[in-house]
Amino acid sequence: MTFQINNKIAVVTGANRGIGLAIVQSFLKHGAKKVYLAVRNTDSVQSLVEQYGSRVEPVQVDVADPAAIKNLAAQTTDADVVVNNAGVLKSADVLDPTAEDALNFELNINTFGLLRMAQAYQPILADKEKAAFVQLNSVASIKNFAPFTTYSASKAAAYSLTQGLKDSWADHNIQVLSVHPGPIATDMANEAGMSEGADPAELVSEGIVEALQSGQFHLFPDTMAKDFETQYHDYAVNIVEPLPESN
């Protein structure tokens, strides 16, 4: 299955900065009819409204709040593609006294946020002739990094859920894309001390457009991610990507 962004309507969470902002810009560059800017504070995207006019529309959401996600879906029933980009990171290794709090925080947004978004948009996307759901995971979803153990755990769980979505939605013409960036030049990477040598967010956003067009399930968009892909490729192609025989 392939999915073209041109003339489609998109929802992007965390659209005000970093990878989310780059995704908005790439989608519009490639002809998206409209992008809903799903953010906690709609004032944070006013510059995008000034730049793109009616091609963008701010919508308030907090992915930690199930009711807010249901409200978002109710306001965006014309969406063809949903990008679940919003995420959080707290630096905590497995022995850190704050690890349990950090993991709860990250699971609520990075993992349960995905679950809530997928369930809220299931009837909307399934009703389309062709639709797509993009999940921002991480190289940390397939390899734990000790200083960010709890983040890695939350992203590993999100990656597992993404695989489940791929199989569950295969009969509904919903393309699922799992995106696995390494360090990207964003505020989150800078705050985590990973900005040195980080690649630009545009690599991720342009990669998403191309991956949807070519029908990929995995996207490893940047320098570090491509190193991971080289080693992970055979397992991904032979174990993760094949659909169950019932599909």
From TrEMBL:
Keywords: Oxidoreductase. The keyword Secreted does not apply. InterPro entries: KR_dom, NAD(P)-bd_dom_sf, SDR_fam. Residues 8-172 form the Ketoreductase domain. The keyword Acyltransferase does not apply. Belongs to the short-chain dehydrogenases/reductases (SDR) family. This is SDR family oxidoreductase.
